[in-house]
Specification:
Blueprint lengths: L13 H11 L7 E4 L6 E4 L9 H14 L1 E4 L6 H9 L12 E2 L2 E9 L23 E8 L7 E5 H6 L3 H7 L3 E4 L11 H10 L3 E4 L1 E3 L6 E3 L6 E4 L4 H13 L7 E4 L6 E5 L3 E5 L8 E8 L6
Parallel strand pairs: 2-3
Antiparallel strand pairs: 1-2, 3-14, 4-5, 5-16, 6-14, 6-16, 7-13, 7-15, 8-9, 8-12, 10-11
Amino acid sequence: MHVTYPERHFGPRPFIAAMRDELAARPYTRIGVEPLAPTIGAEIRGVDLREPLDDETFAEIERAHHDYKVIVFRDQDLSTQQHLAFAHRFGELEEHPFLPPKDGHDEVVQFAKNEEVVGVENVWHSDVSWRECPALGAVLRAREVPKVGGDTLFADMIAAYEGLDDAMKKRLEGKIAIHDFTHSFGLAMPPDKLAEQQKKFPAVEHPIVRTHPATGRKILYVNSIFTSHIKDMERSESDALLQYLYRQASIPEYQFRLHWEKNTLAFWDNRSVQHYAANDYWPQQRVMERVAIVGDRPH
């Protein structure tokens, strides 16, 4: 079956206004919350993450994380232990099987990019969607940033789902996509190592539209790095549909762009956003440290 998909959309997306107004009607009393885009991204103020968080403040931070999908804290000069402690408040911490950990800290991934180690994260993706239970979220802290460039872009995949027309939403009901690390991390592995890792982490099935476990929102959940094809669909049709769905992350109305400063910390909801690390700073150095939190199985 040959299906064509629209390439353009003109004019406003009314659901954005509704989502923005809904968020504005939910005040915070323990923390300052400054929205950075209509539906995604907010700067959190009045919090020092070096200090223990009382339950009421933590609850508002968690709500802001659900509301805005990416929350940003400036001037957080944390130790590694403090970074880990903040992330651990949200759940069990993840160890990445393919990325080398920071010395002495198996749950911290350090991304140190420079003239010799080039950043390759400049493609829209959701972290570890090839896991049976992909990460709930990730807490990323800037240790060293270039003078210009090195921003991270985030895309609201709840807004992306809402932006689909009713016919597409109906078409996606019950559809399952296959997620696999083979064509990303697997590319650098020799055949014997790849076979070993494929046994540990076989391809997994996730719904194309998942439901957020805390908010009940519907999320468009496919990404161009780790999603390989749609189950029980002819390959050319699957490829065409996935390419259309991948493009939804590139719509500016769904995006927020984070300009990093030293000791900026961002916590994104990996279930409901995709991200893209702009590789425009080479050969300058950029050093980031990430702690990820184990999530649930998409449904």
